[in-house]
Amino acid sequence: MTSTWIPVVAGAFEREDGLWLMHKRPAGKHHGGLWEFPGGKVEPTEIPVESLVRELREELGVVIDAVDCEPVGFADNARDARQKPIVILLYRIVRWTGIPASLEGGAIEWYTPQQIAKLDKPPLDQVLAGRLFAGS
Questions:
Q1: What is the pTM of this model?
Q2: Which of the listed CATH numbers 3.30.70.60, 3.40.50.11030, 3.10.350.10, 3.90.79.10 matches domain 6-123+128-132?
């Protein structure tokens, strides 16, 4: 059975000093040069939090326990008939092992919510950031 939508997971890493991790997509990729919450697609045999743990280990080299992933929201483009629908599930992460590094290209940086609001982001990450930091 073919899925009619693309499930994606993303991690919102928060440090104790209140900074949040963002990933700059590599040039040449879809949305290249834009900042996003790191993550990736959910594989058919995985539940979302399993995908998140796997993706963040592959992309950033960090180890995360699923119990440390708190669902905080989602965004979708289902109203855009020009694209296959994407749903991004966002998880807040406050505990991990290792130092995040950009292992699959692009760059990573730590930002305040106010700085993240000013970054160029893909549309769904713009929505996610707005919801995550509402009131900040």
A1: 0.91
A2: 3.90.79.10
